[in-house]
Amino acid sequence: MLFRNRFLLLLALAALLAFVSLSLQFFHLIPVSTAKNEVSSKSRKRIMPDPVTEPPVMDPVYEARLYCNIPSVAERSMEGHAPHHFKLVSVHVFIRHGDRYPLYAIPKTKRLEIDCTLVANRKPYHPKLEAFVSHMAKGSGASFESPLHSLPLYPSHLLCEMGELTQTGVVQHLQNGQLLRDIYLKKHKLLPTDWSADHLYLETTGKSRTLQSGLALLYGFLPDFDWKKVYFRHQPSALFCSGNCYCPMRNQYLEKEQRRQYLLRLKNSQLERTYGEMAKIVDIPTKQLRAANPIDSMLCHFCHNISFPCTGNGCIAMEHFKVIKTHQIEDERERREKKLYLGYALLGAHPILNQTISRMQRAVEGRKEEIFALYSAHDVTLSPILSALGLAEARFPRFAARLIFELWQDREKPSEHSVRILYNGVDVTFHTSFCQEHRKHSHKPMCPLENLVHFVKKDMFAALGSSGTNYYEACHKEGF
């Protein structure tokens, strides 16, 4: 009897300990073993990590996925967030074109077969895709600044041409436009219901992919817009420098930066071996392969989930892609550290930033024209702007990247105006060089417009170490 009671007591105690242990694990008070490459019948089923969660160390495949920006679920964004007593006055949007066919081909490999027509039952899809095609078909007589009128308004080739926008690229910007519509028009009533051409400022480079990207975003933003109210201006320079493009000093910074890139590549023996292996596969000299910029084509394979090319000598592999992509990321890191690119960026971005603050200042004066500005551009447009603003940690512009400047008025103090800067939906205002210090001394959720104006008019030149006080003097400074 005594033995039986002791047995029952021990059994109850064991059950209690088991219950306590499981409870502690459930509430994460003690760790659960997650040893790699171990399989145990007692292990719990592991939950796959969220694919958008950033890995703890640099991962070239993860970075490439972010760059592709494949449309999926509606993204969360911080555009339009402000206290109730702030009124949205104007919005200035800079975009990179959407997904495109490569600009370069890998020599002696089969051409990528990607269909650049827009097909409703093919992924990625958007509810406004068919309506977009129909509306673009009605705009053949649209009046755009020359030479834009000669460009097609949407992609339509069964086999994509070099650099042509894909269906993915169109859908990316239809999503961008709809997101901005929900925030800026439906919530904040930025444009009046009877908006006119005067309320918009639209500008693009002379590439079909930038014009089409701008039109896709505009259609998502203003569905079935009146073609008579839309006028795209042509920008000959990817820097959007208009009549202020001649800048010898900027070119000197660029030459120094390109030299830095070259020296970094020479130090990377793994990169050189990779180029050598790939060159043997396609049977061309290594220098010729490097000049063909294979990463551009490889990224297209990656983003469209198409196997890398093969020849009779073998196949270009994911390991080759990882090495080149890793070098790109390391190059971006060194670029930030060396600061040569910053000099190029400050001079390269000044004209467009100066134009933007001028437009904001006119809005502050109460003028209602050009309160929504859209610049449809390239990675080489956004990248200098990001660097010039001091956003050192910003990733290289992905396909369909968007950089937005918002101008707000404080209704409680109507004379006070503030700005917010957002990159791909993330509020980066207080990461900019002109507003980092302001955050330390103020609890306000935005940055005073004066900070941005002072930065563009004076601080950008001071950051160059230039004695000049204007763009012309900084551009024509003697020596380096």
From TrEMBL:
Keyword Signal present in the record's keywords: the answer is no
Q: What is an example of a Pfam family matching this protein? A: His_Phos_2
Compartment(s) where it occurs, according to its Swiss-Prot or TrEMBL record: Golgi apparatus membrane
Q: Name one GO cellular component term.
A: Golgi membrane
Which keywords does this chain's UniProt record carry?
A: Glycoprotein, Golgi apparatus, Hydrolase, Membrane, Signal-anchor, Transmembrane, Transmembrane helix
Q: What GO molecular functions are on record for this protein?
A: phosphatase activity
What's its membrane topology?
Single-pass type II membrane protein
Instruction: Give the GO terms filed under biological process for this record.
Output: chondroitin sulfate proteoglycan biosynthetic process; glycosaminoglycan biosynthetic process
Instruction: Give the signal peptide range.
Output: none
- So which domain of life are we looking at? Eukaryota
UniProt catalytic activity: 3-O-[beta-D-GlcA-(1->3)-beta-D-Gal-(1->3)-beta-D-Gal-(1->4)-beta-D-2-O-P-Xyl]-L-seryl-[protein] + H2O = 3-O-(beta-D-GlcA-(1->3)-beta-D-Gal-(1->3)-beta-D-Gal-(1->4)-beta-D-Xyl)-L-seryl-[protein] + phosphate
Quaternary organization? Interacts with B3GAT3; the interaction increases the 2-phosphoxylose phosphatase activity of PXYLP1 during completion of linkage region formation in a B3GAT3-mediated manner.
Function of the protein: Responsible for the 2-O-dephosphorylation of xylose in the glycosaminoglycan-protein linkage region of proteoglycans thereby regulating the amount of mature glycosaminoglycan (GAG) chains. Sulfated glycosaminoglycans (GAGs), including heparan sulfate and chondroitin sulfate, are synthesized on the so-called common GAG-protein linkage region (GlcUAbeta1-3Galbeta1-3Galbeta1-4Xylbeta1-O-Ser) of core proteins, which is formed by the stepwise addition of monosaccharide residues by the respective specific glycosyltransferases.
Family statement drawn from the similarity comment of this UniProt entry: Belongs to the histidine acid phosphatase family.
For this entry, the protein name equals 2-phosphoxylose phosphatase 1
Q: Which organism is it from?
A: Chrysochloris asiatica (Cape golden mole)
Q: Identify the coding gene.
A: ACPL2
